[in-house]
Amino acid sequence: MHRLERESGFYFDMKYLEDMVLRGKWDETERYLSGFTHFYGNTISDVCLWIRAQEYFEAIENDDSDKASGILMNNLKFLASRRKGLFESMEQLFKSENKKEHILYSQYKGTEVGRILTMDHVKKDIEADSLLSGKLKFPINQSNSWKWQHRHCIHPNPIINTLFVDHVCQPQYNLSIAQPAVKKSIATSLVTYPGQSHISVPIPDDIPKTLARTLNEESSPMSMDFHPVLQTHLLVGTCAGSIGLWNVSSGKKLLSVNFKVLDIGACSTTFKEALLENPLVSVNRIMWSPDGLFFGVAYSKHILQVFSYSGGHEVWLKLETDAHVGNVNDLAFTVHHRQLLVITCGSDNKTKVWDVHDGTNVFTIGDHGAAVYSVCPHTKKVFHYVFSTFVDGKMKGWLYDNNNKFVIAVFDYDTPGLGCTKLAYSTDGQRLFSCGTNINGQSFLIEWDESEGTIKRTYQGLTQNSLSVVHFDTTKNQFLAAGDNHIIKFWDMDKVELLGTIDVEGGLPEKPRIRFNKEGTLLAISANENRIKILATDCGLQLLQTPENGAGVPLRSIAWDCLEILIA
Fold this sequence. Notes:
Blueprint: H1 2-8, H2 14-23, H3 26-34, H4 44-61, H5 65-75, H6 79-82, H7 84-95, H8 111-128, H9 179-190, E1 210-216, E2 221-226, E3 233-238, E4 243-247, E5 252-257, H10 269-277, E6 283-288, E7 294-299, E8 303-309, E9 315-322, E10 328-336, E11 339-346, E12 351-355, E13 361-365, E14 372-380, E15 383-390, E16 394-399, E17 411-414, E18 420-425, E19 432-437, E20 443-449, E21 454-459, E22 471-475, E23 479-484, E24 487-492, E25 498-502, E26 514-516, E27 522-526, E28 531-536, H11 538-545, H12 558-567
Antiparallel strand pairs: 1-28, 2-3, 3-4, 4-5, 6-7, 7-8, 8-9, 10-11, 11-12, 12-13, 14-15, 15-16, 16-17, 18-19, 19-20, 20-21, 22-23, 23-24, 24-25, 26-27, 27-28
InterPro entries: CTLH_C, Topless_fam, TPR1-like_2nd, WD40/YVTN_repeat-like_dom_sf, WD40_repeat_CS, WD40_repeat_dom_sf, WD40_rpt
Domain CTLH: 10-67
GO biological process, one term: regulation of DNA-templated transcription
């Protein structure tokens, strides 16, 4: 199958490539890539660098000088003309008497984490490559050019759309009499009315539906996020303000942090008075940075905290600020000109942007005239946007100018129902969705046409008498999921009808929180009695059975920093 993919060039299987990289099958990795584009062309040269550099470090790690020499002089020789400084550094590492104390290797922490980081870089470069980005989705050939398959069939008039699926012609029947009964049967099985809890349609296998783990938190989970690299690591923020980091593979909690303001003297009088009046603080949003080296926490009273994480059982407070008056409703990370920023919004009608490394408030957008409910950054080619939604149902888009400021809103829309709404993009960043609930309990799940500012699709099946806001997520550029009416509901992005539902054992709250991991193989769901249910696909179950990743191992090393700087 993979030889067919490589030779036809129709479809690039990222999961297969990832399996090869994580297993260290370097020859097959390069052979597979070479079928799609010349291995030294375009951004594939960067993919080549990450793969061969990892192979080189592993040879050094195993004290295999002959292999390291061969990789350096044969596989990495192309760097001599293109990135002379990097090639010379690798030569110096090889010639060093004590290689493992060389600066380029000294912080390298082993094969497993190195391969995970390599694959993370490889994915980003492949998704950015113009020759490959269009081949990451399984193709549907609309032509009728595969009729050679028809020689196996005994019935005429084949409809053959693709070489990748076996074709079998079906006998042609006259359906004119049976048609009404067929329609009735389909309607009975597919239509779901408000308040229904089941739908008799099999859910696709690439949606997590097998209960794999149950995690027990001390307080009710309010926000969750899977680590972007260590995909079995789940971050949880609770209604009591505590933070938990779980290794879902083992079912063990790696660390727990209770809410505490490190520098209360730097906080505003308003915050101190609010805390004195009511000391209870909840987590509104918790989120990893894109590289997984930091995570941010937005609290229900004023405070934004950003922690650094290098693996294992410890975190360090990187940034603490009295960000907003009242609730910090949401946060999101974005990278602009290689500067890591965290964006927050709050009940004080403002959206603020912070530099993660020095804690400065880079700039403020507002006053908006209404509390800002959520933020969603987005990059399109060279343009950097931030979308904001408001409790009055407005949605605005802001654009960076050349001076790292925002120009006036580039669009201003009304969301359906004028309710509290959150936004999310598909994994590839090409499609924008929103889900919101208004004060009358009406909920709306929408796909937007960004260019026109219009609603492209309104998905069916949400309950229309909600007591709280519906939470949703996207996965695999194909599916939407929402926690509604004590169950989890799923949609195909291209169809407005409800695809199916899952009722999790042990019971769910009315509006459960949900979160997919990066690959969509795991789904975390907040359940009754402070529990978190982990659903998995077959691939997710395999992921949970692999040895624990990242415990006690730094995620970023000096070696990779040097490589990134030299590549840039």
